[in-house]
Amino acid sequence: MFIFALMFLNWLFAGFFLVAVAFGLFTLCTTGSTAPFEAMSAALFSSSKNAFEIAIALTGILAFWLGLMRIGQNSGLLDRVARKVAPYVSPLFPSLPPNHPAMSVILMNFSANLLGMDNAATPMGLETMKQLQKLNPNKEHASDAMIMFLAINASGLTLIPTSIMAFRMQAGSANPADVAVPILLATSVSTLVAILAVALKQRIRLWQPRLIALFSVVLSLLALTFIAWHFIPAAQFSQAATAIASIILMLLVCAFIVDGLRHKVNVYSSFIEGAKSGFATAVRIIPYLVALLVGVAVFRASGAMDLLMEGLHKFLSFTGVNMDWVEALPTMIMKPISGSGARAMMIDAMQTHGADSFIGRLTSCVQGSTDTTLYVVSVYFGSVEITHFRYTVGFSLLADLAGLVAAVGFTYLFFA
């Protein structure tokens, strides 16, 4: 499956350029205009420069959050949070023996994902798979615990969408964090669907007090959002959501710092130590940004993207619903297959329509609503040589679909 994802990107990258040039030749032959080629040439150079500038802007926000996470690690805050949450998560993994090492690593992985620490979450996830494989009676088939773990991972539950906020900041957003609440709600839907689907398949008893408490928190959050939306005027609702996201963000930052000081951690040194890894992370993504952003920019400059969007609008217009969301469809299609491809589509949409436009916010919410399922499944199962995935992919894609639909709905709710 990982090979499929790579081949998909290979053909996608080539297709952007080949289709763009073919469309340009068609325009030249039918109208005699060379404008598409001039636009494509300009887009090639401008988007290459833009990709590098985006990576530079991303460096700062990554360095900040990785520095903050290091404070949390050194103070023991992340470990304490994991221990508090463990009783509410362990019922989802009934095959794990009590106090098994895998549970602590699972919780650390979930915590890292919640806080947007992708580079920390992946090593923890791989260690989790290693621990779960030790308990797996059939070493080539995915165990029930593995499937639950990967379905939750692929649902992409995120409390702080760090990279999305960084991209929005670079794109000129007045408040990059205004999408944090709708992203949290959309990922909550995705994660809830993943847990319920897998739990029903594995016949996990859902009416356990701690699971009911866990689900109640998520459902209450969703219910409160809809109640507020119903009773508060749209403009005030959007302002309140933005304010709440900003307040939560700053309180969270202060919580890490205060906890570090309480536990006699040198918060400045810890922050610097963690922030250094932000630079390495940003540098690693530059080639991927250049490849796909240039491809998307050339494809759009040729006029082929406009033709594609026009065709989708006409095809879906029979539904009679608002069609603004169609502009985010390329990002939605790309998300389960390629994280870098979906990221390029999101950035292109923000550059074309504006970071604070409806489309700019929608693609941001879509990007943050789920994880890249095929990548997660391929890398994690590949690390322990699992060849039979059972129902992992199908259920994870179902959760992805729920998250994407929720992202569209919450974006209309908050910003339309």
From TrEMBL:
Q: Which domain of life is it from?
A: Bacteria
Nucleoside transporter/FeoB GTPase Gate domain span:
57-167, 283-385
A Pfam family recorded for this sequence? Gate
Q: What transmembrane ranges does the database entry give? A: 51-68, 145-167, 179-199, 211-232, 238-258, 279-299, 393-415
Q: Which UniProt keywords apply?
A: Membrane, Transmembrane, Transmembrane helix
Q: Record's InterPro entries?
A: Gate_dom, SpmA_SpmB, SpmB
Q: What is this protein called?
A: Nucleoside recognition domain-containing protein
Q: What is the lineage of its organism?
A: Bacteria, Pseudomonadati, Bacteroidota, Bacteroidia, Bacteroidales
